[in-house]
Request: fold
Amino acid sequence: MSDQIDGDPFWSEVRRRHPDLDIVLLPPEPANPSESGLPSRDPAPFARMQLADADELWASLVGHGMPRPEAMWIPGPTADSVRHSITLTLDDVADTTGIGHLRDAADRLSADDWHVFIPPTGMPRLTADRPGELGDEALLFGYAPLQRRLFLRLTSTGLPLGIRRAQEMTGAAA
Reply:
């Protein structure tokens, strides 16, 4: 393990500057299982439910405006599953309004059993997740000051479809 650290430009410098620290490099995460073992489900009602959930989150966290929705299917946590991702955006939001919504969001989301993280730097945003049946459900809520844009992205837990159908839904190669 020491050879890996000494050969890495970043970690070797950390070790040189902080010899009192123990550095542990973990192996890569194991590959996702190829199949969930769950029965296939119909994606249409699932997508409608996700859109309703995103609308409900928007109403709770923002409460105004008619955001633009954009939805897509992305690969899921297993080869036989997909996730539904929906992004809602609202332009022409004043800085004080956008930042205010972000400040209020953490408490509201925590009350609904979301695990919330607010990055200390960068674009004003928060991320949140909560366990689902097949992987976590994820939320990104933020404000882009230069564009004056408030955005919310809700990514579902995995939806089992079967490998071939999952590949078709995400445009993945077989």
In short: Residues 2 and 75 are 36 Å apart (CA to CA). The chain has a mean pLDDT of 90. The chain has five helices and seven strands. The beta strands are 68-75, 81-90, 115-117, 125-132, 135-144, 149-155, 159-160.
